[in-house]
Design brief:
The protein is an alpha/beta fold. Helix content is about 30%, strand content about 25%. About 35% of the residues are buried.
Length: about 300
Amino acid sequence: MRIFTDWRGLPADARGATVALGNFDGVHLGHARVLAAAHGARPDCPRAVLTFEPHPRALFRPDDPAFRLTLSAERAAALAALGVDFVYELPFNHDFSLMPASDFITQVLADGLGAKHLACGPDFAFGHRRGGDTAMLAEQAQHLGIGLTLVPPLADASGPLSSSRIRRDLQDGYPERATAALGRPWAIRGVVAHGDARGRTIGFPTANIALGQHLEPARGVYAVTIRLPSGTQHQGVANIGRRPTVNQGPESRLEVNLFDYSGDLYDQELTVALHRFLRAERRFGGLDELRAAIAADAAEARRVLNTELT
């Protein structure tokens, strides 16, 4: 899969695709349906996604807490797994936000990408002050000879599937619900940083990863699997939070203990998938009590991963 960060000056073989439009945060099953609709309309064309980086919400509401389900690299990996050929990841900055909706259609979609067919959800909005909607897109696309498929939201017994719903599920401590909506476990991808090495002193060394712009799920302990840069997978137990027993700092972080692994993970990029929320974060009376709790958490994580999730 090839990634382009500008709609201008594209090589000829990166034009003329079917293009799915949207933020694609999480790349959930509803997004997969939009991609399938675009490809189904013109299976003779390459498959492409047009999205934005950063997420427009980060520009318009910069003081909001971190909310991303997938950052750029993880989103690209999920799109590649769905068979996407090109990702047009357009920089969303102040200047781009001022582009009129009609110019987005003519300059970006038609002249820049040479799109043959478009697909999006019925609530897709674009252009300055979200001045363009799907009715406008349909009218102008038809005039330009570009096809358009509007894809209704995917729904289940809990209602329409959306990135917002997945965020709520994770914040409520239900990663298994996120798994069902995404079609894969939700994961945090990040680089292992140096911590205080306290886990090593109590027999449970951990890899420490900043949450960064990722959504912070429910604070507590999780059964997880970890993918290393080599592609190998390991089971583990992780804590997300502020470590109230040993630290009361302002920032939450992810600490993960890999089962049956020894090696230096510093500066490596790990992908940590959350499978089950085991317990909420709590403060313990001291390191001995903390050590006993972590041992119990690790045993429960092994049991869940080896029995309930196999």
